[in-house]
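Reviewer 2 asked us to include a model.

Predict the structure of this chain.
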Amino acid sequence: RREIRDIQKETPSLNRNVISEMWDDCLSAAILDAEGEMNKASEISELSWKEVFEEEYRI
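Predicted model (structure tokens):
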């Protein structure tokens, strides 16, 4: 969340519509990275805008 907000401050054209268009590819890449770091399959296969940017979560 913070990284995307910071990038948006530097690049205002990176708005919600642009992010939405890139969403599936970015999520797939992030899942592959996470699986490699965890050395196991991810339990997550999709995330909504609300889940990522609006809902509170704890790690």
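Residues 23-59 form one domain. Residues 32 and 38 are 10 Å apart (CA to CA). We have added this to the supplementary material.
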